[in-house]
Each structure stands twice: as structure tokens, then as C-alpha cells.
Amino acid sequence: MNPKLVLKLAAILSLSSLRAKKGNAVSRWRSLKLIMASALAGFSASTAIAYHLYSMVSTEFDLSQPLLRFLSFLPLLSIMAVLFYGIMFELGRDPSLSSIHAVNWLPITPTEYVVSSTLSTIFFTLPLLSILWGGLLGLSAAMRVIQLWVFSAALSVLGMMIGGSITEVLKALMSRVSSSMYRRRGRMAIVLRVASTTALIILFMLAMNVNVLLRVLSWLTGTVEMIWALPLFWLSLAVIRFIQVDPASSATFSALSIGFFAAMLKLGIIVRERYWAPSEPSIRLSSGEYVPRFGLLRRLGLSPAESAIARKDLRTFFRRRETASLIVIPIMFIMIFLISGPDPEKIFVIGQPIAGILLFAMMLSSTSIGREGSGILNLLAAPIRTSEIMRGKLTSTLILSAPPLALLLAALSLVLNLRPEAIIALTIGSYIALLESSIIGLIFGVRYPDFSTVPRARFITQMGMLLCMAATSAAVAATLTPLIIYKLFHPQFLDLYTATAITAAIGAAVSIAAYKAASRSISQLYSMRGAPI
Amino acid sequence: MDYAIILESVSKRFGDVWAVRDLNLRIKYGRVYGLLGPNGSGKSTTMKMILGLVKPDSGEILVDGIDVSKNPVEVRRMIGYVPETPRLYDYLTGIEYLDFIGEAYGMSPEERKRRIEEFLEAFELKGRENELISGYSRGMKQKIALIAALIHRPKILILDEPLSGLDPRSARIVKDLLNKLKEEGVAVILSTHILEIADALCDEIAIMYEGRKLAEGRPKELREMAGMPGSTLEEVFLKLTGTEDLKEVIEALVR
User: Are B135 and B165 members of one domain?
Assistant: First the structure.
């Protein structure tokens, strides 16, 4: 193994990954040195802050137990952080951008590649973990348990390496497994891919949730000694034994962890060697005869072009891994709602799952132009009017978001035992808000598209997304104000029917105005900047 | 209307760089018109301006008598276009993509089915049409792009490097098809770096360099214009673009 080559390759992989995350606002962060400097600054600042914070609150709170728990949790957290980052990056990656394809023709050994790739994955979790290391160092210094911090931090670094090497094993296996699965399972494989990606993102979001983390932490420190058989926990067990002044056990678990790392690294090298040049899967979706149809959308009055665009968007939506991040939005809102518990008196709690679907519609619409990527040329070069593009895009957004909203409203009505007039009001208000969110999303999607197809592509610029969210929130809030006033204050001058009628009138006016604005925006489609023409 | 395409004093700048400068072209129906030139000479920009994808800074472009700037959708209805790099939807299957294109051009379901199946058969894509485009090879993608340009029976074809990545059989089909379409009165604008193809296919050729049209005429006329009647089109091209003296370059490379 050539260490110089390994470091060079690790730097190149990190740089390409860093620069792949397109976005003008972060361009100054596309430098390895700046990432390192930010990690160092984060470490120093969090050390100082934690140290001073401790001196301010030490008389009121006993932080020794939480500190010991965190220090024992730190190595496991390091493994999970690197593992999640590595898997998330690989899942959001366009298969054609896979880093192995860029270098597998070079005179590089699998060992050199795997070590470089592990270092590169670790690198990106440095800023986050350095803040954590710093905070724990500050507290440890204040409580005079520096030696414990040194031991925990050292094992945390080892944990990062374990996480990185497991990531390498998973990356190689995932490309191999998905490749063979797609060949055999076709359409089902695509559904499985989106479903598994969605599940993984939800898992990641839950894992990053402070409440969930604290529950895991207390569970871990309460029963950790029962799970010595799980290698991922060996590092944390080593710290716990160190705290319990059991140096022999601590050394044993540390040594076992080093062995586990070596085994994972070796496994990563073996599987990478085996799948050095993974072939792109060729996915057959059907073997039936091609039968073009007139189609339901045409029967509903859409023009051929509008119907073609809507059907194309619907087909591609569930086949793209990137769209899993959009599917996650309503699911997360509904999960939060379920965790909180449905309460008809808490209007904002009831509104959460509906807001999730509105946000989903807005995101679908606002990313619909950017999701075209370089394929936008097909729409621009075909004899399609911009107004047809707009209606086609709106149709696909509404087809994807209106049925889940109907299901949700039906479930809410049943669970909350709503009165018929309340169901009518909720339905009218929700669907008008859905229409507004879809149209306003499209206005900003056209004005601020991001056509790049990099890992975790956003399809709309950050500025566009911020403006879009502000405009949609304002419009929806204005529309639903009569219903909210009725629900919160029960004023005498406003009954539910009147509130619903006013909401419908405001919603119609806002929707018409937004539709006109969207029409004006989309007429500029041919002169937009950054279009891959 | 004799002329399928007329460009009058068309210019386009990207920042400080002139992509196309004061370009005049007249392309008749039933002709194959070749645009030749080194990389960055303005061929692709010219094609995109004809399609209305890029607006010229000055000048006028008429396609079948229609001003592109005033009615681009009508113009596109009669054009089939193959871009330099196929821009397909990776997450559609080949058949779904062609069905989408056919519907976008307003073709009836029956006609779509007949034309698509004919082309799939001809380009040996039958049996692969239900696979996602993301798994296609470059040549297969190029074939799909070509079918998409041809299925709606365009009056005008704009082909930017159409034979790039094609196997010899498919390349031959495209060449024969272009000759057949020419006989049927279709106007074809073709850009290529393979000068033998231009020599064999094109009725007229324009040699472009740094956005300007250096020369225009039949291949034979170009040879005479360059004072090289017995030479290949490659030698004429290199002379006209001032890049014929390659000896020193080669020597420097092998030094």
C-alpha cells in the first residue's frame, strides 16, 4: 500500500464529493482546508463554551452522570454518524457518479481504494464530531476527568474507522445486490428501492431526533452489559469498564474493537476486490406488448402534451431514488402526529399531517422543473406550449398529493369523530390550500430551478425554496384564517358555514392570482439561466 | 416555399465570445446540408437557434416561412432534432420515452405504435424496449434519440453528430434513411466531424470557424474553391480552417 497515494486519493474523493453538492451559497466551503479549519474552530469553541457553561451551572446541576453517559456513548455515536453519512451519500448518488467507476481503471489496489474511501467518508463527519469532542472536553476538563475523555475520544476515532470500513462493505454489497436484484425483480425492485430509501431516511431522521437519542442513551447505559455479544457496542463497553475501573475488561473490549475494525477493513477489501467494476443494472420493467393508450388524462380534457408530461412525471417519480426524500415529508409529519396523539382540541396538532401533505405538494411542484435535469431539452425542443408544461406539471402534482389528502381527511374524520359540517370545512380548506401550494410551488420552481443531477440534488435553489416556503405559508395562512379564527375564538359574528365560504373565496382568489403568476413565470422558461440546453 | 430554413445576418454572443457572427444560410427542401467546423465553431448554437432554444442577438431566422422568434412551437412541430449528447429521461424505459415523444407531437396511438415498432425493429432495439434507459449503452441511447427525432415524420431534420456511438449497421441505416428522406423532400441539417460522411451524404456544406461561415457549396465546389480539386474533404477542411499544418504539433507530441 502506498500511503501517499492513499492520502491523495482520499483528498480527491473528498473534494469530488464536496463539489458535487452543488449550490452557489456554499461555494466557499468547497475546500478541504476550510472544512478542517471549521472542525478545529468548532472543537475550540465548543470546548470553551462547555467549560464556562459548567462553571455557571455546576452549583445547580450535577452533570457528572450525563457526562459519563455521553463519554461512554461517544464511540458508538461515532460509528453510527460515519455509517449513516456513508450510506446516505451512497443512496443519494447517481449510479453513474459512483466514485469507483472514476478510478477503477487506474493502477490502484483494492486496499488503497478502500482505505482512501474510508478516510474520505470519515472526513465529512469531522465537523460534527469535533463539536461533540470539544463540548465533552470542556466538561471533562471542568470535572477533572480528562483521562477518561482522552480514552473515549481515542475510541471514538477508532469508531469512526469502524463505521467507515463497514460503509465500504455495505457500498460494495449494495451495488452488487441491487444490480442482481434489478435483473431478476424488475418493477418490484424499483418499488423496493424507493421504499428502502424512504425507510432509511426516516430512520436517519429519527436517529437524529434528540428525544429518540436520549431514550437510546438511557437504554444503552441501563442494559449495555447484556449486549457484549454485539461488536458495535464493544467500544462503548470499553469506556464503561474504564469508568468502572476494570482495566482488564476495558483493554479486552478495546482489543476486540481493533480486531473488529481489522476484520471489517479486510472484508471491505475483499468485497471491493470482487466487485471492482460493478456493472450498471439493466432493468426490464415489462415484457408485454407495447399498447399505446388514449388515456384517462386525455379523457379528462388534457391536451396530448399535457397528458404526456403528467404521465412521464408520474412514471419517473417512483423510479428515482432522489424522490424518496420528498415521499418522506408527509410520512414524517404523520408520524409526529401519531407520536403526539390526535387531539381534536389542538388545532395545530391536527393541522400537522395536513401541513405535511401541503408541503409535499409544494415540494413536488417546486422541484418539478429541476427534476427534468438535462431532459428539459425534450420539453423545450418539442412543440409544447409553456402553458401545457405548466398544466402537465400541476396535474402530476395533484395526482400524487390529492389522494393521500383524501385518505388522511377520511382517517381524521373517523378518528376525531368530526361533525359533517366540520368535515366539509376541513375538506374545502385543505384542498384549496393544496391547490395554492401546488401552483405557488410551480412559480418558484420555474424561476429558481436547479438542473444538476449530483448526489442529493435539490432541484430548486436554496433561495427559491426559501421564497417558495414563505410565499406558500403566507398564502395558506391567509386562506385558512377564517377557519382558524372560528376554531380558536368561536366568535358570534362567524359561523362555520360563513368561515368556510370566506376561506373558499380567499382561496379561489389566491389560486387564480397564483395561476396567472405561474403562467407569467413559465413563459420565461426558454430564457432561464442554467438550463442544460 | 423553396427554402426550408433561412438565416439572415444572424449573430449570437455568449459574454465576450462570438458563438455565431453574421451568419447567412439558405437551406432547400430535399437537400442534406452539412455544417462542418472545429469544436466551438458555432454549429450547435446555429442548430439551437433554428429550433428557438437559443435566441439570436440579431438577425432573423425563418423556418418554412415562419419566424422562429414569433412562433417557436409551430416551428418545432415540423422539426426532428437529435442533440449532440442524447438528453433522455433515464428513469423511463425506451418504449415509454418514445411514447411520450409521440404523444407530445400529437401522434395518434395507432400511428405511434406502428412507427415506434418499425424503428425499434430497424435499429435492433426490439426486446430491449422495456428496459430503463439508464441501463442503455451510449449507442442505444443515440438510437433512441434518432427514433425520437424521426417518428413524427418531420419536414426538417436537425442532426447534431447523429452517427456518434452507432454501430456500423445502424450508421448505414441512418445514412440510407437520410437519402430516402431527402428524396421525399425532407430538409436535413447535419453536423459531423467525420468528413467522409459529410462528403458522401451532403449536397451542400458550410465550413464554419469561430462563428463565421468560411465557405459554402457542394463538396466539389469547396475543393475547387480551396484550389485542391483532387484532395479529400479533410484536407480542404484543414486548409480552410487554417489548421492544416499539423506536422509541428505531431513532432512536439512525440518528442
Answer: no
pLDDT in tens, A230-279: 788 889 889 988 988 888 989 999 999 999 999 999 998 888 877 776 66
**B60 and B139 together in one domain:** no
End residue of a domain, out of B136, B153, B170:
B153
> What is the domain count for chain A?
2
- Domain of B115, in residue numbers: 86-153
pTM: predicted TM-score of the whole model, two decimal places: 0.75
Cα–Cα distance, A152 to A75 (Å, whole number)? 7
Range(s) of the domain holding residue A133:
3-19+26-274
Interface membership of A316 toward B (CB under 8 Å): yes
Q: At what angle do helices A386-416 and A420-447 cross, to 10 degrees?
A: 150
Contact B53 A381 (CB under 8 A): yes
Q: Are B67 and B23 in contact (CB under 8 A)?
A: no
- The pLDDT-based confidence of A339 (bands split at 50, 70, 90) is low
* Overall number of domains in chain B: 2
Mean pLDDT of A298-327: 86
Residue B159 CA to residue B33 CA, distance in Å, equals 10
Cell numbers given for B26: 439558405
CB contact under 8 A, A312 and B117: no
Same domain, B250 and B139: no
* Among B residues 88-107, those touching chain A with beta carbons less than 8 Å apart: 88-89, 91-93, 95-96, 99-106
Q: Which of A320, A375, A381 sits opposite B76 (nearest CB)?
A: A381
Q: Is the pLDDT of residue A26 over 60?
A: no
B84 contact A CB<8A: no
Same domain, A242 and A308: no
How distant is the Cα of B106 from the closest Cα of chain A, in angstroms? 6
ipTM tops the 0.95 cut: no
Question: Which cell goes with A40?
Answer: 478545529
Listed residue (A445, A190, A192, A442) closest to A320, CA to CA: A190
Which of B153, B172, B193 terminates a domain? The answer is: B153
